[in-house]
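Hey, quick one: can you model this chain's 3D structure?
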Amino acid sequence: MTKSLKVAALAVLALSLALSGCGKKDASKVKVGEVTRSIFYAPQYVALTQGFFKDEGLDVELQTTAGGDKTMTAILSGVVDIGLVGSETSIYVEQQGSEDPVINFAQLTQTDGTFLVAREKKESFDWNELKGTTFLGQRKGGMPQMAGEFTLRKHGIDPQKDMKLIQNVEFANIATAFASGTGEYVQLFEPQASVIEKEGKGTVVASFGVESGHLPYTVFMAKKSFLTKNPEIAQKFTNALYRAQKWVEEQPVDKIVEAIAEYFPNTDKEIMNSVVKRYKEQGSYALNPVIDEAEWNNLQDVMEQAGELKAHADYKKLVDNTYAEKAIETGK
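Sure thing. Here's the predicted structure for all 332 residues.
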């Protein structure tokens, strides 16, 4: 082959490669910070393992930001683009005065995720039995504690006067403290509640999620400036989430466990089945990403009773359902 023919052949090859890549776009990288690693967030892991984010052209980098305050700090500082955390944190930021508010745009869970565990096995349970007992609760100021105290007051119990309330145990050590003999009752997340039951050290007698009603309990949120600059990313993210929510609603418990197992390598499959079943049955997983105004108001009632709300936050200012509504519309 002559030199001129070689040059021509290389030119044709280069052109064909360029044309073949024209229709391909690099995936948009999105950094997501989750407040903790929890089976409570099953639809998020389903969106990852089933390729729903990838189908939308997103490369989601998930990190656990361990705590509401740390997650919010990561959002505000730009360490993450999107945070998965309780809606109350966006209200706290608003109360402090923010020029770039954090916007709730897609709901993941719609109830509290904790359960009331009694040390003694019971054939039946009455909330009045908590009066005069030692109750091992959650950290003051967090949504689990607020939802817990909201429920207690609903049943005529003053948590500060009618029981000995312990709230100074670190979140990670609450189940261990109870198993070691502290308290007659404890408020626990899953899978700790199921583990305690399996070990014969306690019995789940009630659900704070059922008792406190629907709330925008765990929500994907981002700074207003991020959403303004990246509406397409927010839409694609919400599309994938809605697809995962429908998948979780339609699939049996064992299929869901199989889909999320890689994110919980050290958790017993039997326990995982128990947890997913419990959360599905009580409707903890939101069926779509929309954040309802009634749920938002219920959240603020819970915060107000706990003394954590300076003034009611404007739903229209801190919630943007545009992406959720479009995801539902196009996802049918």
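One thing worth noting: Confidence is low (pLDDT under 50) at residues 1-24.
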